């Protein structure tokens, strides 16, 4: 029962900025794309508040 509750809470959890950044970096296809994405993150792509 606790395993099911943990799955549900993980599914409803809002990803943090760090989680989103890591997922974005992991989506890069080559070194140049990775460096481009790192520069975007350094400029605050995921840190801007609305």
Kindly summarize this structure in a few lines:
By secondary structure, this protein is an all-alpha fold.
Keywords:
50 residues; mainly alpha; 3 helices
Detailed description of the structure:
With 50 residues, the chain is mostly helical. The protein has one domain (15-50). 66% of the residues lie in helices and 0% in strands. The protein has three helices and no strands. Helix 2 (17-26) runs antiparallel to helix 3 (31-42). The longest helix is centred in the last third of the chain and has 12 residues, at 31-42.
* Helix-strand topology string: HHH
Which strand-content bin applies to the residues?
Answer: under 5%
Radius of gyration: 15 Å
Structural domain count: 1
Percent helix, as a range, is 55-70%
The number of helical segments is: 3
**Low-confidence stretches at least 5 residues in length (pLDDT < 50)?**
none
User: Which class best fits the helix and strand makeup?
Assistant: mainly alpha
Instruction: Characterize the biggest β-sheet.
Output: none
* Mean pLDDT figure: 89
Through-space gap between termini:
38 Å
Described by the principal axes of the CA atoms, the overall outline is elongated
Instruction: Tell how many strands the DSSP assignment holds.
Output: 0
């Amino acid at each position: 029962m606790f395993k099911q509750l943990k799955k549900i809470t993980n599914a409803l959890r809002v990803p943090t900025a760090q989680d989103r950044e890591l997922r974005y970096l992991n989506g890069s296809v080559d070194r140049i794309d990775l460096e481009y994405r790192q520069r975007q993150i350094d400029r605050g792509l995921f840190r801007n508040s609305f």
